[in-house]
Write a structure and sequence with these properties.
alpha/beta; Rossmann fold; 7-stranded mixed sheet
Length: 383
């Protein structure tokens, strides 16, 4: 007992699942156990798959750089038209023919290209998807910043590396205020957001029917990539967006010249300090919350709640943490580290988002999975 006579709280021990996992880990760590599993006919295939997964994890940085090189050199673009010879690829990429062959060999190993017995190269499935999607290409090019931030991952985790490339790019992160963003910064990250959001808009639109609403406000809407997709699917919906003034101005310029009935309202301000436009029966937050710490998210959600009436709907869409599927696990690992390098935010579970929304005044919730957990999961909240 302490001097005051109170007992220290007892920390509960691990449950049976944790103890079972610890036992399993001890068995897998034994070389003789692994050899036994590899010998058994029923488990041999599983063992080989696990071995390949582990090797892929250990060498994953090489695969990402092969991908980067295939995009940056123009290799995938040169293959877009059909079967191409090595000499043609050398002229298109500016690489020597022997280096083209090495890049082709590496790219074929990760299913970007296919080289036939006739010596002609074509796009494989992964390469065809990447070459057809500007959003994926923008993401691959952008990763050069993240790679530099991860050159010393221990420094990132222990907090000694705070001046990261991503922190400089996403200058608003952690504040949401106009003073944190310069027009040049806004141009850089707004273009990236617009390109990357094109990849998930259809996922969100297929998971939730926005046609039931009259007016939609996209908070943190960037240059309007998401509401552009919404407009194509639901042309009768009145649309508007709210973002920092330099970003909202870029959105206005993007929509300038369009017919008045198709031109959304672009509101500039801080979503923490300024009141949001009212009378929108649906408000969306697309990849916004995971950029910010809990205190900022709570302030934002309270500001959103203040702009809503009973019967209105808030749709939160972003990658969410979890381990229920391979896509969700990959999303958790990638976005969790990405926002760490940004210096603000974290990848949350749906339950954590619901807890914050409850504290902000929302009371009813629905969780909607998208086709791809890598892209987003939806949390739908009602006042």
């Amino acid at each position: 007992m302490s001097a005051s006579g109170s007992r220290r709280p007892v920390t509960p021990g691990p449950n049976w699942r944790s103890r079972l996992q610890a036992w399993r880990a001890r068995q897998v760590a034994r070389p003789e156990f692994r050899r036994f599993v590899q010998w058994l006919p029923l488990s041999r295939g599983y063992s080989r798959d696990q071995e390949a997964d582990l090797f892929s994890m250990v060498t994953g940085f090489v695969q990402s750089q092969i991908l980067f090189a295939a995009v940056e050199t123009g290799l995938l673009k040169a293959l877009e038209a059909g079967p191409v010879t090595v000499s043609d690829l050398a002229r298109a990429t500016g690489l020597a023919e022997d280096r083209v062959r090495r890049l082709l060999q590496a790219a074929q190993a990760i299913r970007l290209v296919s080289v036939g017995g006739d010596g002609f190269a074509t796009l494989a499935d992964h390469g065809a998807v990447i070459q057809s999607d500007p959003g994926i290409q923008a993401m691959i090019g952008h990763h050069a910043l993240l790679y530099r931030d991860l050159s010393d991952p221990v420094a990132l985790f222990n907090g000694s590396n705070t001046e990261t490339e991503l922190r400089r790019l996403w200058s608003y992160a952690g504040s949401g205020r106009e003073s944190s963003v310069k027009p040049g910064d806004a141009a850089a990250y707004s273009a990236l957001m617009a390109a990357s959001q094109s990849m998930l808009a259809d996922e969100i639109l297929d998971a939730y029917d926005f046609g039931r609403h009259r007016k939609l406000l996209d908070v943190g809407g960037g240059e309007g990539a998401f509401i552009t997709a919404v407009s194509a699917r639901h042309p009768a919906l009145t649309l508007s967006l709210f973002d920092l003034p330099p970003v909202a101005e870029r959105a206005r310029q993007r929509f300038a010249g369009k017919p008045l009935d198709q031109c959304p309202h672009c509101h500039g301000g801080s979503f923490l300090d300024d009141p949001l436009p009212r009378d929108n029966d649906c408000i969306t937050l697309v990849r916004v919350l995971f950029d910010h710490e809990d205190a900022v998210v709570l302030r934002l959600l309270r500001n959103v709640r203040a702009a809503m009436k009973p019967g209105h709907m808030l749709v939160i869409a972003e990658p969410m943490a979890g381990a229920s599927s391979r896509g969700q696990r990959l999303s958790t690992a990638y976005f969790g580290i990405y926002v760490l390098a940004m210096g603000s935010g974290r990848c949350r579970t749906p339950a954590e988002i619901i807890a914050l929304a409850t504290a902000a005044g929302f009371s009813r919730f629905d969780i909607r999975p998208c086709r791809s957990a890598l892209m987003a999961t939806l949390v739908i909240a009602r006042p």
